[in-house]
Amino acid sequence: MAQEVDIKTCKMCGMGIPVKAKKCPYCHHWIRWFSLHNPAVVIPLVFIPLLVLNGVMMETLFKPFRQWEQFSKHADQVKIVDSKMEFGEDQSDPAVVVIGTVKNLSTVDWKDVRFQVDFFDPKGQFFDTGQQELYAWRLPAEKETDFKVSFHRQFPKEQYAKYEVRVISAVDSRHWP
Predict the structure, then answer these.
(1) Domain range annotation of the chain
(2) What's the rounded Cα separation, in Å, for the pair 120 and 127?
(3) Minimal CA–CA distance to 167: which of 84, 68, 78?
(4) Residue/partner pairs of 17-23 with CB below 8 Å, 24 or more apart
(5) Which segments of the chain have a pLDDT < 50?
């Protein structure tokens, strides 16, 4: 005696299929959407955790390259040890030059270091300033190194009685560009 099978109709092709069928044997339409045999269910179940895991791994691998120190947190650890002011010519224009030594007490190697020099007259009045960024120059961690900044001089030498030099910005050398 033949066993009677309950039949239902496929919504896509209209053919009669067994009630327990997950997929139509004629048109291959998925009857039950949530089935572990349905690729629309399996792909997200497999690939979403892989994408999350991949993101975590990428974060771990590239973290040293993407995170760098801000100079403002370490500015007090970069000190001008000594310096002096000289006068000369820069491309046949009068120039004022400050040369000296700077010490990096931090554990960060700095690049693209920007110096600022403020100039004062004999009465102690501020009258001129200049900034210069040394792009190819590096300030190694926990080391002392020499520097030189040069500015076009717009006033007579006699007005340049005193000066103050400081490092106002720099970039962590681990920072890519």
Answers:
(1) 7-66, 71-172
(2) 6
(3) 78
(4) none
(5) none
Task: Specify the long-range contacts of residues 154-162, CB closer than 8 Å, at least 24 apart.
Answer: 154/128, 155/127, 155/128, 157/87, 158/122, 159/119, 159/121, 159/122, 159/127, 159/128, 160/85, 160/87, 160/96, 160/119, 160/121, 160/128, 161/120, 161/121, 161/122, 161/124, 162/119, 162/120, 162/124
Domain 71-172: which CATH class? mainly beta
Q: What torsion do the CA atoms of 97, 101, 103, 109 make, to the nearest 10 degrees? A: 60
**What is the pLDDT, as a whole number, of residue 108?**
93
Report yes or no on whether pTM surpasses 0.85: no
